[in-house]
From TrEMBL:
<feature type="binding site">
    <location>
        <position position="151"/>
    </location>
    <ligand>
        <name>NAD(+)</name>
    </ligand>
</feature>
<feature type="binding site">
    <location>
        <position position="127"/>
    </location>
    <ligand>
        <name>NAD(+)</name>
    </ligand>
</feature>
<comment type="pathway">
    <text>Lipid metabolism; butanoate metabolism.</text>
</comment>
<dbReference type="GO" id="GO:0008691">
    <property type="term" value="F:3-hydroxybutyryl-CoA dehydrogenase activity"/>
</dbReference>
<dbReference type="GO" id="GO:0006635">
    <property type="term" value="P:fatty acid beta-oxidation"/>
</dbReference>
<feature type="domain" description="3-hydroxyacyl-CoA dehydrogenase C-terminal">
    <location>
        <begin position="195"/>
        <end position="291"/>
    </location>
</feature>
<dbReference type="InterPro" id="IPR006176">
    <property type="entry name" value="3-OHacyl-CoA_DH_NAD-bd"/>
</dbReference>
<feature type="binding site">
    <location>
        <position position="40"/>
    </location>
    <ligand>
        <name>NAD(+)</name>
    </ligand>
</feature>
<keyword id="KW-0633">Potassium transport</keyword>
<feature type="site" description="Important for catalytic activity">
    <location>
        <position position="148"/>
    </location>
</feature>
<dbReference type="InterPro" id="IPR008927">
    <property type="entry name" value="6-PGluconate_DH-like_C_sf"/>
</dbReference>
<protein>
    <submittedName>
        <fullName>3-hydroxyacyl-CoA dehydrogenase family protein</fullName>
    </submittedName>
</protein>
<dbReference type="GO" id="GO:0005886">
    <property type="term" value="C:plasma membrane"/>
</dbReference>
<dbReference type="GO" id="GO:0070403">
    <property type="term" value="F:NAD+ binding"/>
</dbReference>
<dbReference type="GO" id="GO:0015079">
    <property type="term" value="F:potassium ion transmembrane transporter activity"/>
</dbReference>
<keyword id="KW-0813">Transport</keyword>
<keyword id="KW-0520">NAD</keyword>
Length: 300
């Protein structure tokens, strides 16, 4: 009934940031048998996370996908805190999932570095910053690694384990064992690179789809059709951009351009026009496609 795998070792895990990612990562770890502290500076975010996680688990129990006893035990192992360093002195592993702001993350790791043991693994779930941008914020950069979960973390199996230049073999191996113990699939990057693996490939496909469309080679519908029927994608790149929110990819491109200054990293004309017109995809009722009613549950 339960799809969780018992952990080889019961760890004390601190997850900092109770938003879309951190809340689900924390529950994944608790379901796998670890003792988890979930911390957020915003008490409302913790309340929201608790409510959403409990609703989601009740639905899974009602559908027979999880045993009620497993879920109850997981919530017993999950404690909520408004102090971001709660329990950090005992933690075996810290997973940071706070806002995507380098200064906020570095400040948090500096604080954690003063409290955590020297052998505590410090991990970030960031999508944008390679380990070397964060690892030196705390002492012992060899214990730093990126553990990049995908959204929704309760469902998606892949976790990219991104080694920085200083990450030790021991920390990489313990990180892989932790991810396997969650019942997830670790994918190790031996060297850091912006975007990691999955998002780089996704972005390359998206950029090529936009280029084909802008060159007048084929319609949005035809390009999506080719991806679905020839490549076996569950949805085409334009359908996916509409689902995740066109503004998200637009902002990612602008951030990348701010770092590289390479004009090739700027958002495309088509995407810029859509964002400026407020056509952000499903959430506004229009993006590359038009929808009958806006869907406020989509987008990040
Ligand atoms: N959303 C996604 O699809 C996705 C996927 C993979 C990775 N990520 C990464 O996960 C991280 C979090 O993303 P999210 O979408 O969950 O963000 P979110 O905005 O939903 O949540 C961020 C949370 O961090 C909290 N926070 C901010 N500063 C804090 C601090 N100093 N201490 C404690 N809590 C603090 C906020 O109150 C908020 O609840 C980001 O680094 C992002 O790149 C996001």
């Amino acid at each position: 009934m339960s799809d969780t795998t018992p952990p080889t070792e019961r760890l004390k895990v601190l997850v900092v940031g109770a938003g879309a990612m951190g809340s689900q990562i924390a529950l994944v770890a608790a379901l796998a048998g670890h003792d988890v502290a979930l911390a957020d500076v915003d008490a409302d975010a913790l309340d929201r996370a608790d409510r959403q996680l409990r609703e989601r688990m009740s639905q899974q129990v009602a559908k027979g996908r999880r045993a009620a006893a497993d879920v109850a035990a997981a919530f017993d192992r999950l404690a909520l805190h408004t102090d971001p360093a709660a329990g950090a002195e005992d933690a075996d592993l810290v997973i940071e999932a706070v806002v995507e702001d380098l200064d906020v993350k570095r400040e948090l790791f500096a604080t954690l570095g003063q409290v955590c043991r020297a052998d505590t693994i410090l991990a970030s779930n960031t999508s944008s910053f390679v380990p070397s941008r964060l690892a030196d914020a705390a002492p012992h950069p060899e214990r730093f690694v990126n553990l990049h979960f995908f959204n929704p973390a309760l469902v998606m199996r892949c976790v990219e384990v991104v080694r920085g230049p200083d990450t030790s073999d021991d920390v990489a191996a313990r990180s892989v064992a932790f991810v396997e113990g969650l019942g997830k699939q670790p994918v190790v990057l031996e060297k850091e690179i912006n975007g990691f693996i999955a998002n780089r490939i996704l972005n390359a496909v998206r950029d090529e789809a936009i280029r084909l469309h802008e060159a007048g080679i084929a319609s949005v519908e035809s390009i999506d059709l080719a991806c679905r029927t020839a490549l076996g994608y569950p949805m085409g790149p334009f359908e996916l951009m509409d689902l995740t929110g066109i503004d998200i990819g637009y902002r990612t491109k602008l951030a990348r351009h701010a770092e590289t200054n390479d004009p090739a990293d700027l958002p495309s004309r088509t995407v810029t026009d859509l964002v400026e017109a407020g056509h952000l995809g499903r959430k506004t009722g229009r993006g590359f496609y038009t929808y009958d009613t806006p869907d406020q549950t989509t987008g990040a």
